[in-house]
Amino acid sequence: MEGWAGKILDINLTDGTVNTLPLDMDMARLFLGGRGLGARLLWDLVGPEVEPLSPDNVLIFAAGPLTASGSQTSNRFSVSTKSPLTGTILDANSGGWWGMQFKRTGHDAMIVRGKAAAPVMIIINKDGVAIEDAAHLWGKTVSETTAALGQNNNRRNVLCIGPAGENLSRMAAIMNDGTRSLARGGPGAVMGSKNLKAIVVEGHERNKPHDPERFRFMLYETGKLIKASPLTSQALPQFGTAVVMNVVNEIGALPTRNFQASQFEHAEAISGERMRDTILVDKHACWACPIACTRLTRTSHAEGEGPEYETTWAFGAQCGVDDLEIIAEANYLCNDLGLDTISTGSTIGCAMEMAERGVLDTELRFGRADLLHDAIRDIAYRRGLGDEMAEGSYRFAAAHGVPELSMSAKKLELPAYDPRGMQGQGLLFATSNRGGCHMRGNMLGPEVLALPRLIDRLASQGKAGIVATHQDSAAVIDSLVLCKFTNMAVAEEYFARVLSAITGIEFTADDLMRVGERVWNLERLYNLREGFTRADDTLPERLLKEPVPDGPSAGYVVNLDPMLKEFYEFRGWDENGVPTPEKLKELELDTLAAEVEGSGA
Amino acid sequence: MIDQRLYEQFRDIGRDIYVGQLTSSHGGNISVRVGSRVIIKRRGAQLGRLKPEDFVETSLYHTDSGITRASTELIVHRAIYQKTSALAVIHCHPRTAIALSLSRDAIIPIDVEGSYLLHKVPVVSSEYSSGSQEMADVISDALREYKIVMMRGHGCFSTGQTLEEAFHWVSALEEASDIILEAHLLGEERIEYRKHSEAYSKW
Questions:
Q1: Nearest Cα to A147, choosing from A175, A117, A114, A183?
Q2: Residue B73: which domain range?
Q3: Which of B34, B146, B168 sits opposite A462 (nearest CB)?
Q4: Testing the interface with A: which of B77, B82, B87, B164 to mutate, by most A Cβ within 10 A?
Q5: For residue B136, is it within any domain?
Q6: Residues in contact with A528: Cβ distance below 8 Å, sequence separation at least 6, in sequence order
Q7: What are the residue boundaries of the structural domains of chain A, listed by start?
Q8: The complex's ipTM?
Q9: Using a CB-CB distance cutoff of 8 angstroms, which residues of chain B are in contact with residue A228?
């Protein structure tokens, strides 16, 4: 294969049929792979009538044209589905080895439909595709399942759900290679609803470049950039993603105690520097990754991978906890039970505020580190209050009459940035198609880290265009599929040339950005078809009306309305946030838009 | 209406372009895209002395009364915004780069910084090399593949997410051009030190 394998696996768990479909190459050119291809396939397969946890929902696992090519970080893959947490279109992606191995089975994507009568697993190897009984694995944790199925990096890779997915927690992740996660939006619950415990892949094909000489040159050039960037060559390898903890805290953008403040007085105790000096044992890299940001850590009681910055925040500042060992163990637990750490930590933080305000009768309080681990187990196994929290913070808080205490956008818990101190990040969260998320065009780069340039984090005029192009760029990276960290050192003009070298089809940087814009607009159309409106492009009331109480961002709220108006104009959408017919025609999406009321097509 | 924070960016970058001798007193123009609008320097305003009233806000897509005061090159700026993902555009007259553009179809830096940042800057031509639709088409098409291009004998058009980014490419181009010129004037045989440098001409 040269970029694309040309095949899509189509598996129906209800009747056990397995088919191989040809990849539509026009679709591949327009959407590349990963998130883009997943969104396009999902558009046809899952309409607004489908309930996310019903057999009619599908899971689409997709690699990209660069996957398994050996290009830096070409290990990733994504899963697309309708989210049981948000009701929006969802994709989540993950690194490690599984994506590379799946691509080497000779497939670009795999559609999983229906529901098995009893727990099953899918095995893909050179003998073909088999659906096998997995009753003996049901109830087992991620580490138990992964070990039982013979995980072996570079040869046999395991993807599975844990108890949280089996119990249909709306915050359940899908895990691969033991500790990597497709976390956000509850894809693990969709997999659990299908009685699908695991997917094991053994690959044997190669993704070879069409132009090996040009590919070698581009690997050399991109490698130079990754080595030259202090973030990718020093900060991330030395400290992991938690390297930004102190930085974000210093500027007054670290959400603290359910976003009641934007600086955490104990940030240093949970920082990347402190992690390096205390619990860090080693670092680790995904396949073909020169960065190696993964942390291998050991506490007094356990050892494992992580925690990442977002996780350290979710169980740290968000819950008022400053015990790094307990936070790391919370991360190990979430990995083993198959839970999204951001949503889990944020929901627990929400419960803590509810308890402090007398809305909830529980011992949970900010700073009660001793209760974190039990709360996580209760969410995974849906026990007691955990059963309510497993619904996600919005449904949980709304059930108790205080939806405003859920720090979420479109019901997805916000990550570790207080947007009152990063205005562009606020617009990003409000407009993200899968709900409040930083991985859809993180403004941490330009607003804080000066990547590629430092912009005024508190300004709002002119921000919308920067947010939108970051969103489009993220959609490109997610469709290739690569790691976002490469994009902190390498620009689209390089990715375009790498893609051209591998596929033999010439792409420019602008072609790629157009793909990103197309993907973003298709996701928007999907959500409009589901009934989402402009009113959903918003943030928790706290962030719009309660100024930051003190610190470097004191006095600020998110100036959302003017940024949103500018954003719609920039995107070529009408005042209701609906893409105009002209824009859809320009993006070659006009034939799809007829299904969306108000699109004018 | 331009707000104070954005005005300060225009003022500072405009000053840097003039002080850096990258344009004459009244030459060059700069703009940013805001939603579906363009904010551009007023025609005839001095880049080195920009005041809040020296800006025109006009539609990205339609001609309106703003054109009576906007820079002559507005047509090029509009075309660039419509065809690329640029959010800021700088046009100015870097003199060494202009000199090099008279004798080559691309400026290929030979120094580390220029090679790293630019690889290659194409030189394009247009019979009407100021404010024409032909020029707007040629420039905007080239900027779909490159972040900065030279119009032969005229000057550069540079793009970025911010004015600062676009200015970076201009500054890097002129520095790289100075080095090419000075190395040429030395007249000594050049020692190639860059792996894969032969591929830069095909960038």
A1: A175
A2: 4-189
A3: B34
A4: B87
A5: yes
A6: A578, A596, A597, A598, A599
A7: 7-201, 240-406, 419-593
A8: 0.80
A9: 116
DSSP states of A435-488: SS-STTT-THIIIII-SS----TT--TTHHHHHHHHHHHHHHHHHHT--GGGGG
Dig out the tokens for B91 from the structure: 């046009």
Beta bridge partners of A388: none
A466 with B161: Cβ contact below 8 A = yes
Structural domain tally of chain B?
Answer: 1
The tokens for A339 are 């839970």
Residues of chain A with pLDDT > 70: what percent?
99
Its sign, for the CA torsion A150, A153, A155, A157, is: positive
- Cα dihedral B88, B90, B91, B95 in deg (nearest 10): -160
The CATH number, out of the four listed (3.40.50.2300, 3.40.50.1100, 3.30.365.10, 1.10.599.10), of the domain defined by the range A419-593:
1.10.599.10
Is A109:A61 a contact under the CB 8 Å cutoff? yes
Burial of B32 (0-12, 13-18, 19+ CB in 10 A): buried
CA distance A88 to chain B (A): 26
pLDDT score at A593: 80
The pLDDT, as a whole number, for residue A539 is: 98
Whether B22 is covered by a domain: the verdict is yes
Which pLDDT belongs to residue A598?
64
- Average pLDDT per run of 10 along chain B, which is 203 residues long? 87 97 95 94 93 92 80 91 95 98 97 94 86 90 95 96 96 98 95 89 87
Does residue A570 contact residue A465 with C-beta atoms inside 8 Å? Answer: yes
